[in-house]
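Residues pack. One example:


***
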Amino acid sequence: MHSYERKLHGSGRKSRRRFGVGAAAVAVASVTLLSCMILPLAEGSSAVGAAPHATPTFNLVWSQSVNGQNGNPNDAGLAIAFSSPNVAWLQGNQAVVVGDRAGNVLAYNLANGSIVPGWHYNDGGISIDSSPSVSPDGTTVYVGLGNASAPDRGSYLALNQDGGVMWDVVPHNPPSDYAHPVSGVNASMSVGLLQGVTSVTAGDLSQAQYALNAANGAALPGWDPWFSGDTEISTPAIADLYGTGQNEVIEGIGTSAGVLFGKTYTQGGHVRVISQTGNIGQQYPNGGLDCQYDTDEAVSSSPAVGHFLGNNGEGIVTGTSDFYGSQGQAGFDTDSVIAMAPTFGGNCTQAWTAHLDGNTSSGPALADVLGNGSLQVIEGTYSPNTFAGSIYVLNGANGTVAWTHPLNGGDLGSVSTFNPGGQDYQDLLVPTTSGVEVLDGRSGNLITTLGAPYGYQSAPLVTNDPNGTIGITIAGSDYGPGQGQIEHYEISVPGHASVNQSGAWPQFHHDPQLTGNASGDTQLVPIPPGVGMAATKDGKGYWIVASNGGVFAYGDAKFSGSAGGLRLNQPIVGMAATADGNGYWLVATDGGIFGYGDAGFYGSAGNIQLYRPIVGMAPTKDGKGYWLVASDGGIFAYGDAGFYGSAGNIRLNQPIVGMAPTTDGKGYWLVASDGGIFAYGDAGFYGSAGAIRLNQPIVGMAATPDGKGYWLVASDGGIFAYGDARFWGSAGNIQLNRPIVGMAAAPGDLGYWLVASDGGIFAYGDAGYYGSRGGVSS
């Protein structure tokens, strides 16, 4: 259950109101759907045809019954309720994370459903209805602890990629609320750039909203706390609404009548736009509003932001609830969807209101389900009298109904969308209390139902899976003992379809940071760039390393650790794998070495005064040594790595950018950014690009397995092959999102991989594609 709870300033009274449906308390009758109801479109809108749909095949890949087994002994008999699954990068792999009412944050490998090694977080039994959010690089999980059934317990929590607690912040009620000093956090934490730092923000179950530094949990100035005046279960949105380069916080809330810090509140609710500076410089701790829209019904829905209004105007849209309506005090805004146009320094002006057939507490989605290039508003309803509901697709410009469809069960969780391939519109995934209904976005026709007979009150998660398929993860519970259930399906699609394309809404509140922003213009701290890669011995996997030391493993590449959680003196610039592929080294620009798995430490240049920074490394044949190379061509040999010469005493035309060893480890090549090659030891010279006018500089190289040739790669993906190195293709004619930063050779001189700074992978020849980090932040 949820509750509204408000302490009126100076009154010494507390009011608590409850609404909603518990996850294990809903009895649902089975209903057979024969057809959907299609309503006329508004004039000028795209026709909703019943064109044949290429029905996708949903393959159940794995499932987990969360019942006290599988390493979660505290989870018996408690449900997954309103917590929606999210995708994170834990220990180098994609993982599904979700909370439950036993107080667990669960983490499963996305590819096979296995529990992330060593991961087990339990908060001591405090229920979790908050949906986890993740950091822009995907390696930190943020979640609220506590729900309305026990509003006086909980906190804001951050977990690292091993499940360890990074910080835990307990929200405190106002001093006048002496009987209830602590409050829980039912809302989910949205992630965005506030006051120049990556931050998380959400309201609590008392009357406060915090914004915290995502790195350490410290409250931002003006948010310690910001007084909202009532219980907040709505997940805020974060967006740059006014094009100023500064984010605003958009929240929904319900209020009871009273006076708080000089402001009179009426019964109902609000949608607010709050400056990222909170109440800094304001007379009262509830100051700092850019605009506010008042409703006569509580707003428990999570607002969405996007360019859905007429003429591509940016707006805010939210559902409300039936809280006051269920008490016989229904207002104009009960069971409604409201769209607003925010005006800087003005009002949140109403654009339109649509009245639906039930509770609209689930957060709306913004997606192009009609295929007309515009965003529609998708909202589900729930009726507590019939335990059923409907799904509505509303025209974003005016709120008219494009189509509506009756559901087997009620919709208490937000809708997600996906494109199964070969069509120009999104299909719908609708969580209901009787399974997840999959609907054709253009016609509204029922395609199939997933997960029945379990009940789902959280949004499905759509992912680009490591094997190139589209993944769909649903999390819910049964109606008996309240046992949690997680199921992961895959859909095979042509090519490597992206779930983050324009017009998609692939999960709760749009993205892993839960920004609620369909326009994608929320200011986020950039993901640390990828700087290099290494392949496994059999060529059936690879690792990517980022500048912060984060390591991401694909295929049969084993994650053995990373420097992502360390405070580095200098950024990582490269990596190398051990001979058996059971470990790897990372190297920083100051020559610091970080070894993982069976990668031994044989020395570093971290304590040497370098003339130029380190730019790469290479291992010896047996993995018992390695070389480091600096941008001036200086070579540093460790372990059994022999010194065969360097370019440190040569006047270079351009700096060295990488190196590769010979097959027997008795020599090596260096490559400069102009394509010049410098060969030492038994490394043969087979040609260079030094005399060629390059479109873009060389950024790396790889040697053929027999050491009688090598490839050079440029930042635009151009490939230059010398000796017995064969040309298998290049990215030189592709419009890249980010530049190429390195390459690795496949076994047998039959292919190679290129890696871009956003983690995108380009595979050529027989080099297999096993996944990439491209687009991980959205």
